[in-house]
Amino acid sequence: MTATTDHKQGQRGSAFVTGGSKGIGYEVARALAGAGYSVTITSRDQQEISRAAGDLGEQVRGVVCDVRDPAALEREVSAHVDAFGGLDVLFVNAGVGNFANIADMTIQQWQDVIDTNLSGAFYTIKAAIPAMKERGGYIFTLSSLAGKNPFAGGAAYNASKFGLNGLSEVLTLDLRQHDIKVTQIMPGSVATHFAGHTPSDADAWKIQPEDIAQLTVDLLNMPARTLPSRVEVRPSKPPKK
Q1: Of 171, 178, 232, 238, whose CB has the highest number of CB atoms within 10 Å?
Q2: Catalytic one among 26, 37, 138, 157?
Q3: 11: closest CA among 234, 229, 220, 231?
């Protein structure tokens, strides 16, 4: 059985993935396309999104879209629905990280994180809900273990992910009668380019982006009656400290 939402009765649908030019979003888009979905991926960078869409193949369209811009999201979700006839899966992934002691963090650093990770998630979901109510679907919010475990220097990031978890839980209550599932995926250390990191062989112990992609496909294959509403994901064998 290919990945699909049960209400579609086996038919493949379409998916919208924010922050899809690299890392987790890219691998989720690849997995969904491989499972038969038509996919739109977004990025703020034209060169990166063109490269990613070209690599992922003809089932994937790439668009430049800043999730901090509600009007841009409404426009691109509408274009996605026009292109594919509807929207079945939303993967809310776009995120940034600025880390500093609260006393040293600038207002701009705070706003960049909250506006992208939390407000951007709200704008993305808000834009997608009308189309998803037409036939039900699945919303994934890419949170973090930082959404339950605060750490020094993580004021903005922790706040954004704690907030995203709360938003996701309310979404479940608001949307369940419309046959829309909502799952928070909360990874620990993932080998991505997040916060300026460059993945290398030293990251082999970490969760890999394709692992989150496989989890997403597996969740889509769950029976319609069952909702894993929060999934915490950790490296199985981190280095000894």
Answers
A1: 171
A2: 157
A3: 220
From the centroid of its chain, how far is CA 221?
Answer: 18
For the sheet with 230-233, list strands across it: 60-64, 38-43, 14-17, 89-92, 137-142, 180-187, 230-233
**Along the 241 residues of the chain, how does pLDDT read in single tens digits?**
233 333 343 347 999 999 999 999 999 999 999 999 999 999 999 999 999 999 999 999 999 999 999 999 999 999 999 999 999 999 999 999 999 999 999 999 999 999 999 999 999 999 999 999 999 999 999 999 999 999 999 999 999 999 999 999 999 999 999 999 999 999 999 988 777 778 788 889 999 999 999 999 999 999 999 999 999 999 999 998 8
Q: Which one, of 3, 73, 10, lies nearest residue 42 by Cα?
A: 73
For 119-176, where are the E strands, in sequence order? 137-142
In a 3-state reduction of DSSP, which class is residue 152? coil
The number of beta carbons lying within 10 Å of the beta carbon of residue 161 is: 28
Give me the phi and psi of 184, to 5 degrees please.
-90, 125
In sign, the C-alpha dihedral spanning 171, 209, 156, 114 is negative
Active site includes 157? Answer: yes
CA distance 8 to 144: 30
Maximum distance among all Cα pairs of the chain, rounded to whole angstroms: 53
- Distance (Å, whole) CA 66 – CA 68: 5
Question: Tell me, what amino acid is at 67?
Answer: V
Domains of the chain: 11-233 (3.40.50.720)
